[in-house]
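Researcher: I'd like a candidate sequence for this fold, 244 residues long. If you have to choose between options at a position, lean toward the conservative one.
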């Protein structure tokens, strides 16, 4: 929020020309209610075990189609062919990158590079705080080149025991790893999300990479806060009884 405020001041982003009445706000909220239910259905269905994440994507598409056609009526039947075409082109870009990432994962696995890097990091210091810093740097660099899924499959079994030996709770380690690798998805030069954003917005990857640098800086701070202050990410799971 602070970054957005600073950027809005610097680039003179447009502001609302007038204040809206509570009646207008209520009408806007009603119109937005059904579209905003999309993430509720996705996350709720996954957490309740109704469907898998892959099935959730299909459910979300079907829900969005029904809402667009019959509820908010921003979509017409004549628009569907162009929507499917644009979706196919965007998906093709993503899947080509995922295929490349999977090929790279195979090369990395066969070369035993993750094990070599992990052993090298452990040989540098025995200080737990420094080790956490170095492992975070390793995850951040890996996230620049590998998709989060393959990176977790490769590095999870290697780094998990290291974190546990350092006194880090396994759930805390999973949160650190997932957040770090997710940030890597938007980090140049090979961040998958950068190419998706480029395909959708028609902007160059270089332009997008430059524009998100302030946000990446904040995300890096967040990663270290999560790492060194476990209560930030572990308090709610503990209160909910998910972890001890």
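Model: Candidate sequence:
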């Amino acid at each position: 929020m602070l970054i957005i405020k600073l950027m809005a001041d610097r680039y003179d982003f447009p502001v609302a020309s007038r204040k809206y009445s509570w009646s207008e706000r209520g009408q806007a909220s009603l119109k937005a209610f059904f579209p905003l239910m999309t993430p509720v259905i996705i996350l709720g269905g996954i957490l309740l075990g109704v469907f898998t994440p892959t099935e959730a994507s299909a459910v979300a598409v079907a829900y969005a189609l029904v809402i667009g056609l019959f509820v908010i009526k921003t979509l017409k039947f004549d628009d569907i062919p162009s929507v499917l075409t644009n979706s196919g082109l965007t998906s093709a870009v993503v899947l080509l990158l995922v295929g490349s990432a999977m090929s790279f994962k195979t090369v990395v696995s066969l070369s035993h590079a993750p094990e070599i890097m992990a052993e090298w990091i452990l040989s540098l210091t025995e200080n737990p705080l420094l080790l956490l810093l170095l492992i975070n740097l390793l995850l951040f660099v890996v996230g620049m080149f590998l998709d989060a899924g393959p990176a977790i499959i490769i590095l999870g079994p290697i780094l998990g025991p290291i974190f546990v030996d350092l006194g880090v709770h396994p759930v805390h380690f999973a949160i650190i790893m997932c957040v770090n690798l997710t940030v890597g998805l938007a980090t140049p030069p090979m961040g998958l999300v950068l190419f998706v954003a480029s395909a959708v917005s028609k902007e160059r990857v270089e332009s997008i990479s430059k524009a998100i640098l302030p946000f990446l800086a904040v995300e890096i701070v967040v990663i270290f806060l999560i790492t060194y202050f476990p209560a930030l990410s572990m308090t709610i799971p503990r209160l909910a009884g998910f972890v001890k």
